[in-house]
Design a protein that fits this description.
two-stranded antiparallel sheet; 65% helix
Length: 1430
């Protein structure tokens, strides 16, 4: 009808005027006619909407002058209508607006409960609101009437429509609610709409933004009206309905959320999302400046109280039994999300104070309270100390008023916090010990307090889970002696309860320390740990561990129910018997494994062999948790990179921890009930990880490195937040993860280190830093080097473990160590740049700094004596990204930093001279990164410029050359004693030639200084060697024996490698220079002789070294031959083993000495040397040509030369004839020959690889014995103890090793075929010697420390000491046979041995007692007869 230009009411009228001539004479008449027409045909409801349509184009066109007539026209129309109907204009406008709103809300076919409008409804409502705004601008609209009429609508308004009214400043929400005549109806409408809003937002992502705006505005209104802090406004609202409505709505909506907490698993996902959407009202940022902080805190405080006191149906007994289900990861996500949002408004201290207040004043829902405790503990790092303070306060109040409620609250909170793991709170066992395990605890102040505690614990017993009862039994409260009965009564009751639960306290395992209270760790997990420990001990000793044998007898329930099933887990048996198979076989042989159980085990292993191809099927069950773990780790990475809120990161880490626990639960590995201080066992040579464990550890390490790299892309470490540190701390809380984690780090750092790229090195270095930060949660590491060791492996701290992994042996390992330590320390300095110097020293592992102190100057000339300068941490961090390009530059950047140099001044971080030497001695000269000349220059700088002049306090020598000499000696020995991983754990056999060269230089310098002194100055070498051996008693343990033997062999090598002048000193005595060998003689007699395989002779190298040194030292004497003769003469009494050694090695020694003598002196040999040469010549002539053997002043020396000549003679067989040709006055010579032969017999037994044959030595000994018997010689004198007989053969015993002397009884009873009847009557002391040696044999067998050790390959044989037992049996039969035949004189001193004999062999003791008793009786009878005669 109208063209394009006829868009307005005015244009329409103007057009009609142009088409026909107006019938009205004036404009007034025309206006009157129009109004009349409108009066008869107008609809005000539509008119409000249409007017807006007509005004809107004008507004768009910008023609503001057109709007005024329109607005005045709308107002005039309403006014005219109002005047005709007699209703005020404002009321009429409001009534028509309500009618329009009702029509708009009913226009949709959707039910009225739908909270949102459709697009058409929004457009119509927008038009209406514009018209209403125009009316409000002209003051012709009644808000109050409009609010009243809204509630009179047939159906309540749609929530979005109300919100638009609020947003358009038409009405306020408070005014609208206040105008509702029925507050309950308003509450019901609001709650219904808000629930619908949340559900619609959860179902449709497109509506979520609008729903969020609506929800936030209503939430602000609720707080402004319901929690007003302004006193004046609060008084105004005091009697208004809106306050109650706001409170009621918030309460009902909170109840709506809490009702779903216990039904989370049954609820539909969309319903849970709807409730989660409502929790947005607890977002602090939502209110910004709209609500003051006090009002917000009041609202949150009120909400927290409502949550904690909601539906308190659970009893305390229920909480005790069920609280493990309320940990952070098991609690409903609705509840934890609510708690986390509420805690944002408070500090951790305020949150805990609020919790404490609720516990003291309300009846609480224990599930909500304890899950609140878990959330606080997990999401706030400082919560641990706050909870400790709260627990202390509760205990003080409990014992102050004897209040059971405070006691139970303290116990529940302590247990709940401990459930989150040691990374969050101390284990329950530790808290219980700290609270009640010492004399200063609250319960020790009075008997009443003690009784109160035990009555409380007794009341808990019927409800206690088993793990808590175990803690109370294993770590009982401190009780004074007089009240021990109270403790005994409780422990009896607790053990009875454990029996009812079918859990024995013996199930605690062989080495368990109850530091955790996770019920999942019941005996099966501990049994796996015990099996691994037992296998390690068995592998090292080849003996069944004592703890296993004791358990099989005294703790049979645990042994048969848990230990054996853990040991006998079916598997595919290896083709070659391994340690586990050998251990099982050993237990089977001693009847510690029932035959039926063993048979089932073997059948199951066979079945697994048949199904070997299908074994991978069994691992599929763990894939799902691992995949979930991947998803959770990815979410954690987003939070860390985006610098999310601290509590969000903590919460996600807790989720990861829960998934990690599930993964390890599925894997069936040892549980976390392993002791907190039980060492972690790592096989460095070949760390073993189960496939499932390795995949999880790889996932965790990869996640850490990715998090670090992603976060570092945006921020340096000091601005990355605590996420990475908390992530690592969480891992440390999983005890069953730590062995796999450290084992994997061993693989990566020790075995694969040089092949790692820059990103790997940086990530692992940062991980090591954070792991060291949480070292309090990590037990010591028991390192195994992959070989059987006589003693348990050393326990290492975490810092020592890193030092062990970061070796510096080859060019590749040195470069890697440099890069790794540079990355670790640089990251540390950046990460903790804001920490104080003291905190840095406490956190940084010293081993990393010491490695840098060693490597940086070694590889960089610039670092030797460089002055430090301040470097920015940003530059330091940037240098890390170029490690792969030039790691030396990065290390120098770190080295020059003033803060790093300050660290080097601390004693804990100073690399001492000894530590430097140990590191340098590890380096392989052939594979060193330095050339020979570079290494020589470095050694000169380090020794003579750095450490020699440095003060003692900083690890130097303070200019003392002798001190430096001693440090080098000790370092060489310590390094040689250390197990060398590069050679599969074998001790080192080669000393660094460069360091040894410096040692030789020092010896010469010290010798020059001593030659200038007039007094006799002892060389420090022997003193140093003997100091190392002090305090170590030989034979105290097998490990100590082996250490001592290895140590002495190293001493010998050092002595031989240094100038011989160190063995012999020159002194001025009575105005002449003499030679002094007392120190060397003492060292030989006390130590060196005990590492002689022959027993009576030193090795050739040390023997030759001594004689050559003797000739060299005699050059300083005017009468050199006399000096040499004096020394060799002194050897006869002071060190006879030197002469015996000369006799053994004379064929090799003679040409060396004669050549040296000729070179030095050019005159005939000294008398004593010539005498030795003659003895050797006489012995050879006697055997070869039958020349009479000349008598000697010292028969034992002659016997030594003769014995050695016989041993070296080839072919043999003439010895018997040679013995007969000896003169009649050669008894001592023959006895000495017997002694040397018996020593060879013992040597053949204990060292068969030395070339001695036992049977040959035995035959030769029997021949000598027969010769002695034929001559009637008193040869048993040879076996008299040196303490009881200072006779002619003591010199032989003094020249023999202690080991050979202790095994002399073995040699003695090997001669039993040569013992004749005449011997019993001829030698009255023979029976005493035989009985004494038999007792010594038994003692040797019982102690086991000096027995001849079998070959390693035979060590698993249970009859490994069969030969020794045969000797004991032979000795016993011999004694039982000869004792009745011995004359009475033979029993003279037997009484001294009778008690010991009865202890070791009661039967033999009884025989002796029976024989001795008649003698005593007859003697008494004779005395009685004599008395009668008188």
């Amino acid at each position: 009808m109208a063209g394009p230009g006829c868009g307005t009411w005015r244009s329409l009228l103007a057009g009609r005027a142009r088409k026909r001539k107006s019938a009205f004479e004036s404009g007034a008449e025309f206006q009157k006619a129009v109004l009349c027409l409108l009066d008869h045909h107008q609809n005000l409801n539509d008119f409000l909407l249409e007017v807006q349509d007509s005004v809107k184009p004008a507004g768009k066109d910008g023609a503001e002058h057109q709007e005024a007539p329109s607005e005045s026209f709308l107002v005039s129309v309403l006014q005219e209508q109002a005047s005709r109907s007699g209703v005020p204009t404002g009321i009429l406008a409001a009534q028509n607006a309500v009618n329009n709103i009702e029509q708009i809300c009913q226009a949709s076919a959707s039910p009225s409960t739908v909270p949102l409008l459709n697009l058409d409804q929004r457009e119509r409502l927008s038009s209406l609101l514009q018209s209403v705004k125009d009316l409000l601008a002209n003051n012709v609209f009644s808000r109050s009437f409009f609010c009243q009429e809204i509630w009179k609508m047939k159906d309540p308004p749609v929530l979005e429509a109300v919100w638009h009214l609020y947003r358009g400043d038409i009405i306020s929400l408070g005014q609208l609610l206040e105008s509702n005549p029925s507050a309950p109806a308003a509450v019901e409408w609001l709650c219904s709409c808000l629930r619908g809003l949340c559900e619609q937002a959860a179902e449709s992502s497109g509506d979520m933004e609008l729903a969020g705006h609506i929800l936030s505005d209503f939430a602000i209104m609720f707080l402004q009206n319901g929690f007003q802090q302004n006193l004046e406004l609060r008084m105004k609202l005091k009697f208004k309905k809106v306050v109650n409505i706001c409170h009621a709505v918030l309460q009902r909506m909170l109840t709506w959320v809490l009702d779903a907490v216990g039904k989370e698993k049954q609820e539909d996902v969309s319903k849970l999302q709807a409730r989660t959407f409502w929790l947005n009202v607890f977002g602090v940022s939502l209110y910004d400046s709209a609500v003051c902080l006090d009002s917000l805190q009041q609202f949150f405080r009120h909400t927290l109280i409502e949550v904690l006191t909601y539906n308190p149906l659970l009893k305390v007994s229920d909480a005790i039994q069920m609280q493990k289900e309320w940990s952070f990861t098991r609690t409903s996500s609705l509840l934890t999300t609510l708690y986390r949002k509420l805690f944002v408004a408070f500090s951790p201290k305020e949150s805990i104070c609020q919790l404490q207040q609720v516990l003291e004043t309300h009846e609480v829902n224990w599930q909500h309270v304890l899950s609140c405790v878990s959330t606080l503990a997990v999401c706030h790092a400082e919560a641990e100390q706050l909870f400790k303070d709260l627990l202390s306060h509760l205990l003080i109040k409990a014992f102050g008023n004897y209040d059971v409620e405070n006691m139970i609250t303290a116990f529940l909170i302590a247990r709940q916090a401990a459930l989150e793991g040691p990374a969050v709170f101390m284990p329950y066992s530790k808290w219980f010990k700290a609270s009640f395990g010492n004399a200063g605890s609250h319960h020790t102040r009075s008997k009443k307090a003690l009784i109160f505690l035990f009555e409380f614990l007794t009341e808990l017993v019927p409800f206690e889970p088993a793990q808590y009862l175990k803690v109370h039994i294993m770590y009982p409260p401190f009780v004074p002696t007089k009240y021990r009965s109270v403790l005994l009564e409780y422990t009896t009751l607790a053990k009875t309860r454990l029996d009812d639960l079918k859990v024995a306290i013996e199930d605690k395992g062989l080495c368990e320390d109850l530091s955790s209270t996770d019920e999942s760790v019941q005996p099966q997990g501990q049994a796996l740990h015990d099996v691994e420990k037992a296998l390690q001990v068995f592998e090292n000793t080849r003996k069944i561990p004592t703890s296993v044998m004791e358990a099989s007898i005294f703790r049979r329930r645990y042994y048969f129910s848990w230990f054996l099933p853990a040991l006998l887990r079916p598997r595919v048996l290896p083709e070659t018997s391994d340690v586990r198979m050998a251990f099982i076989d050993s237990l089977k042989r001693v009847d510690k494994i029932p035959s039926k159980l063993y048979s089932r085990y073997m059948q199951a292993c066979g079945a697994m062999k048949m199904l070997q191809d299908g074994t991978e099927v069994g691992t599929s069950h763990s894939k799902e948790p691992v995949e979930q773990l991947k998803v959770d780790l990815a979410e954690l990475r987003v939070l860390i990179v985006e610098q999310a809120k601290h509590e969000d990161v903590l919460a996600q880490i807790a989720v990861v921890s829960g998934k990690l626990a599930r993964v390890f639960c599925h894997s069936g590995d040892e549980s976390e009930a392993a002791a907190l201080h039980s060492p972690i066992q790592i096989d460095i040579s070949a760390p073993k990880l189960e496939a499932c464990h390795q995949s999880v550890v790889n996932l965790l390490l990869t996640s850490f490195c990715q998090n670090l790299m992603a976060a570092s892309y945006f921020n340096p470490p000091d601005r990355q937040g605590p996420g990475l540190s908390l992530f690592v701390k969480m891992m440390c809380g999983h005890r069953n993860l730590l062995p796999s984690l450290l084992g994997r780090l061993c693989q990566l750092i020790y075995h694969q280190g040089p092949s790692l790229n820059n990103a790997h090195i940086l990530g692992l270095a940062a991980f090591v830093v954070h792991l060291s930060e949480s070292r309090a949660l990590i037990p010591e590491v028991q390192v195994n080097f992959g070989i059987s060791q006589p003693v348990p492996a050393k326990l290492l701290s975490l810092a020592e473990f890193w030092n062990c992994l970061l070796e510096c042996r080859t060019e590749e390992s040195i470069a890697f160590c440099m890069r790794f330590c540079t990355a670790a320390v640089s990251y540390f300095m950046c990460k903790f740049s804001s920490c104080s110097h003291e905190d840095l020293c406490a956190l940084l592992p010293p081993s990393l700094v010491k490695k840098l102190q060693y490597l940086v100057p070694r590889l960089s000339l610039e670092a030797r004596g460089i002055l430090c300068k301040e470097a920015k941490t940003d530059l330091l961090w940037n240098s890390l990204s170029h490690l792969s390009l030039n790691y030396k530059r990065a290390s120098l950047c770190l080295w020059k930093q003033a803060r790093f140099q300050e660290l080097l001044k601390e004693k804990a971080f100073q690399l001492s001279f000894r530590e430097w030497l140990l590191l340098e001695l590890e380096v392989s000269s052939e594979k060193d990164i330095l050339s020979a000349s570079e290494r020589q220059d470095f050694h000169y700088w380090a020794i003579y410029q750095l450490y020699l002049p440095a003060p003692f306090a900083s690890g130097g020598c303070d200019g003392d050359l002798e001190k430096a000499f001693g440090i080098i000696i000790n370092a060489i020995l310590d390094s040689s004693q250390r197990l060398d991983l590069g050679t599969c754990g074998q001790s080192k056999t080669a000393v660094n030639p460069d360091i040894f060269c410096k040692l030789q230089e020092m010896v010469l310098e010290l010798g020059c200084r001593q030659s200038l002194l007039s007094a006799c100055t002892r060389h420090c070498l022997l003193k140093i060697l003997q100091e190392r051996l002090k305090g170590r008693k030989p034979g105290s343990a097998l490990g100590e024996q082996l250490w001592r033997q290895q140590e002495l062999l190293l001493h010998r090598r050092i002595l031989v490698g240094l100038p011989a002048s160190t063995l012999i000193m020159t002194c001025e005595k009575e105005r002449k220079t003499v030679l002094d060998c007392k120190d060397f003689f003492h060292f030989v007699n006390s130590e060196l002789k005990n590492v002689c395989s022959r027993g009576y002779a030193l090795s050739y190298d040390i023997t030759s070294h001594f004689f050559r040194g003797l000739l060299n030292a005699s050059l300083g004497c005017k009468k050199f031959a006399e000096a040499i003769n004096d020394v060799l003469t002194a050897c006869r009494t002071e060190c006879p083993i030197v002469l015996l050694s000369a006799a053994l090695w004379w064929p090799k020694l003679e040409p060396v000495l004669c050549s040296q003598w000729k070179r030095l002196f050019g005159v005939p040999l000294a008398g004593e040397l010539e005498r030795l040469r003659e003895l050797k010549s006489s012995a050879t002539s006697f055997l070869s040509s039958g020349v009479v053997f000349p008598p000697s002043e010292h028969p034992w020396i002659s016997a030594a030369f003769l014995h050695c000549a016989i041993q070296q003679q080839s072919p043999r067989g003439q010895e018997r004839g040679a013995l007969k040709r000896l003169g009649t006055d050669t008894e001592q010579l023959l006895v000495s020959l017997l002694f040397f032969s018996l020593m060879d017999l013992i040597s053949a037994k204990i060292a068969p690889k030395e070339g001695m044959d036992f049977q040959t030595s035995l035959e030769w000994s029997l021949e000598i014995l027969q010769c002695l018997e034929e001559r009637g010689a008193s040869w048993p004198l040879l076996f008299h103890s040196a303490k009881k007989d200072n006779g002619q053969y003591c010199v032989l015993r003094s020249a023999t090793s202690d080991h050979h002397i202790r095994l002399l009884p073995l040699a003695f009873y090997s001669l039993t075929p040569g013992f004749h009847q005449e011997l019993l009557t001829r030698e009255q002391t023979f029976l005493y010697v035989a009985l004494d040696f038999y007792i010594q044999l038994l003692q040797l067998f019982v102690e086991g420390k000096d027995l001849p050790q079998p070959e390693v390959s035979q060590s698993s044989d249970p009859t490994e000491h069969g030969d020794f037992l045969e000797v004991i049996s032979t000795a016993r039969r011999f004694l039982l046979g000869v004792i009745p035949q011995c004359p009475a004189q033979s029993f003279g001193n037997i009484q001294l041995l009778l008690a010991t004999c009865e202890e070791f062999d009661p039967e033999l003791g009884a025989t002796l007692f029976h024989i001795l008793r008649p003698s005593a009786t007859s003697a008494a009878m004779e005395l009685d007869e004599e008395l009668v005669l008188f």
